[in-house]
Design brief:
about 15% strand; GMP Synthetase, Chain A, domain 3; extended; 4 domains; alpha+beta; about 30% helix; about 400 residues; 12 helices
């Protein structure tokens, strides 16, 4: 997720670009916010906002109060207040933009109610933090084995150690309610820490783990998407997509969030387009909608007895015929309203950058044919020369022996 130039040094500061996470590439931190007010000074009578946004593992963010007025910058490693002990996180945002983020996440702007930031993390804090973070993969593997041994229908997708190593949070997904009272006892005895279980949805699990989507880019939920809206199959129907669950489902097993991105545009375009179940009544017969091009505003209709032959008409003409049908009138035929297809004389492919023709592989190779033709012509010429020399030789023999020829 982050650029290599912003990797953290020994003192917790970025050792590459040294911009404290404000390089503007938006890749130093997961779900980061670029502080465009960092280089602007506040008015003289206004005090800086004491709220600070701190990021933890897998993009989890919380807001804290800088009660000690520490000089904090984006990228600083700090020790924050927890229910017991302290936690270690990375500062992702300071200043006035923290107010905007708190309002966006519906958190009261009362700084006094926020937990505190104790201090900038010392080297000892960072060593303990990195040590417990290195144990997480092995603990996760062991915890899954314990859950399988107990026969629980749940999946432990991720674990997170508190910065001081005193508490471990286990994130799990389950389709049904799970009784994990015995599981917590086994975890506490096996790992010698306080245990907290948190159930997350399948979308939240995909956001925490990350991955590459079918579009070839990183998952939206793990990069920039902060809220999860419900996605329905009607969104695919409005966009005329194939209702194939293998194509419409994401890595979380639910419908892809990107189905909602263009849905409003399709709904606006479909306002005055007739529905596909509306039939057109003509004297020639009843016509049924076979296909719709939403953005070109074209409809294809076919008669019930001649469904193979489609007639292309515009949305305006279709609405006009529907209005006449509602009044009890019928048009003679749809052919009178059909759109004439214009064949453009423009070239399909034009060689403007020195590329070969797109249809070059459709034609047979000419080299072998030319070679065969050349060999055939060569053989013909050799035969002709051979016959000619033979005829000359025979003529010379006749001239030398006239009596024998007579």
């Amino acid at each position: 997720m982050g650029c290599t130039s912003c990797s953290t040094g020994a003192n917790g500061q970025p050792k590459g670009c040294k911009n404290n996470g404000t390089c503007g590439k938006d890749g130093c931190n997961k779900l980061t916010v670029f502080d465009w007010l960092s280089n602007m000074s506040l008015p003289g009578d206004q005090e800086p906002f004491k709220g600070v946004e701190v990021r933890f593992k897998n993009g989890r963010k919380h807001f804290y109060k800088n009660s000690e007025n520490l000089p904090l910058y984006m990228g600083d490693v700090v020790a924050t207040e927890a229910q017991s002990g302290h936690d270690i996180g990375i500062v992702t945002l300071t200043g006035e933009l923290v107010k905007v983020q708190m309002k966006k996440k519906k958190i009261k702007e009362n700084v006094e109610e926020l937990p505190k930031i104790y201090r900038k993390a010392t080297q000892k804090d960072i060593d303990i933090w990195q040590k417990v973070r290195a144990k997480e993969p092995e603990i996760q593997k062991r915890s899954r084995e314990i859950a399988i041994h107990l026969g629980l229908k749940m999946k432990i997708s991720d674990i997170e150690y508190q910065g001081d190593g005193s508490k471990t949070t286990f994130y799990y997904t389950a389709e049904e309610r799970v009784d994990f009272r015995q599981l917590i006892r086994d975890f506490a005895s096996a790992f010698s820490t306080r245990v907290e279980m948190k159930q997350v949805g399948f979308r939240q699990e995909a956001a925490r783990l990350g991955g590459i989507g079918s579009c070839g880019r990183e998952l939206c939920c793990s990069t920039w998407l902060t809220d999860f809206r419900s996605v329905k199959t009607s969104a695919a129907r409005y966009q005329q997509l194939s209702l194939n669950p293998q194509k419409l489902a994401g890595q979380c097993g639910k419908l892809k969030c990107c189905l909602n991105y263009e849905l409003d545009t399709y709904l606006d375009a479909l306002k005055d387009i007739p529905k596909s179940d509306v039939k057109l009544h003509t004297e020639k017969g009843i016509a049924i909608c076979q296909k719709t091009d939403i953005f070109k505003r074209i409809l294809w209709y076919g008669y019930e007895k001649q469904s193979v032959n489609w007639i292309q008409i515009s949305v305006e003409k279709a609405n006009e015929i529907i209005a006449l049908n509602k009044k009890g009138k019928k048009v003679y035929s749809l052919e009178d309203y059909a759109i004439e297809e214009k064949v453009s004389d423009n070239k399909i492919f034009e060689n403007v950058v020195g590329q070969d023709s797109l249809t070059r592989f459709d034609k047979p190779k000419q080299k072998n044919n030319n070679r065969r033709r050349n060999n055939r012509n060569k053989n013909r010429n050799q035969n002709k020369n051979k016959n000619r020399s033979q005829n000359i030789h025979n003529t010379q023999n006749r001239n030398k022996n006239p009596k024998k020829n007579a």
